[in-house]
């Protein structure tokens, strides 16, 4: 009788041990599966939109990487610069598309553009600074030249000065930067003008008894 009771106790102990081991194994498997899920989630990188949402900030619009704007060859946008580059600094064109001449800053800055046949860019061939459209309608020669220096190519080299008439003085320059930017225009000019020189441009100071009221900057050497 005692032997039979001992056998029953041993069998009960084995069953309990088996149940315990099975429970441990299942618990271990669940923990491993849980670890795998955590690991997978943690490897997913957060996007800028996700980070913005978490911080409460709006995401910035994505810029069109296919659109490129040519760098300026002047200080503030002028002769030889593209229309897109000039309008980044001076705002939108105030004239209609059919006007033939673009106007900026209340008609104080005027530009004539043409698409260069070589570079295929809409580039400024002529720029006019109209002081009469500003609060200071007349400028001294020093003031006018300071304004002009900001709209001519930065590598400009002075060639000569001459007078057209009593109201117009001309300064002629040359620029390698302009020669490259307007290669197609200079090629065409050379075919029609034997005195043409690539990179040449002029600055015309228009004045009266009270001072200089306008500065015209244009490609070529023909005023």
Describe this structure in words.
The protein is an alpha+beta fold and 223 residues long. It is 37% helix and 24% strand. The chain has helices at 2-42, 48-55, 83-90, 141-149, 176-181, 183-192; strands at residues 102-104, 109-115, 122-130, 157-165, 168-174, 200-208, 211-219. Strand 6 and strand 7 form a beta hairpin. The chain is globular and about 45 Å long.
Topology:
Blueprint: H1 2-42, H2 48-55, H3 83-90, E1 102-104, E2 109-115, E3 122-130, H4 141-149, E4 157-165, E5 168-174, H5 176-181, H6 183-192, E6 200-208, E7 211-219
Antiparallel strand pairs: 1-2, 2-3, 3-7, 4-5, 5-6, 6-7
* Shape call: globular
- DSSP helix fraction: 25-40%
pLDDT average, as an integer? 78
Number of helices: 6
* Largest β-sheet summary: 7 strands, antiparallel
List the main descriptive attributes of the protein structure presented here:
single chain; alpha+beta; disordered N terminus; 7-stranded antiparallel sheet; 223 residues; globular; 6 helices
Could you give a quick summary of the protein structure above?
This protein is an alpha+beta fold and 223 residues long. It has helices spanning 2-42, 48-55, 83-90, 141-149, 176-181, 183-192, and strands at residues 102-104, 109-115, 122-130, 157-165, 168-174, 200-208, 211-219. The longest helix has 41 residues, at 2-42.
């Amino acid at each position: 009788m005692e032997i039979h009771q001992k056998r029953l106790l041993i069998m009960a102990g084995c069953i309990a041990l088996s149940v315990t081991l099975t429970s441990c194994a299942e618990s271990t498997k669940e923990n491993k599966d849980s670890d795998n899920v955590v690991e997978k989630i943690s490897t997913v990188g957060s996007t800028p939109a996700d980070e913005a949402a978490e911080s409460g900030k709006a995401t910035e619009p994505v810029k069109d990487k296919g659109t490129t704007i040519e760098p300026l060859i002047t200080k503030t946008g002028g002769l030889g610069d593209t229309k897109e580059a000039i309008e980044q600094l001076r705002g939108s064109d105030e004239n209609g598309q059919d006007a033939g001449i673009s106007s900026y800053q209340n008609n104080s800055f005027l530009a004539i553009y043409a698409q260069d046949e070589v570079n295929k860019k809409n580039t400024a061939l002529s720029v006019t600074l109209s002081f009469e459209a500003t609060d200071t309608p007349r400028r001294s020669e020093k003031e006018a030249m300071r304004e002009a220096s900001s709209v001519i190519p930065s590598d400009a080299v002075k060639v000569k000065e001459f007078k057209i008439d009593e109201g117009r003085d001309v300064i002629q320059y040359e620029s390698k930067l302009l020669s490259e930017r307007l290669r197609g225009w200079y090629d065409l000019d050379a075919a029609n003008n034997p005195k043409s020189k690539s990179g040449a441009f002029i600055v015309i100071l228009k004045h009266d008894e009270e001072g200089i009221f306008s500065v015209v900057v244009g490609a070529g050497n023909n005023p």
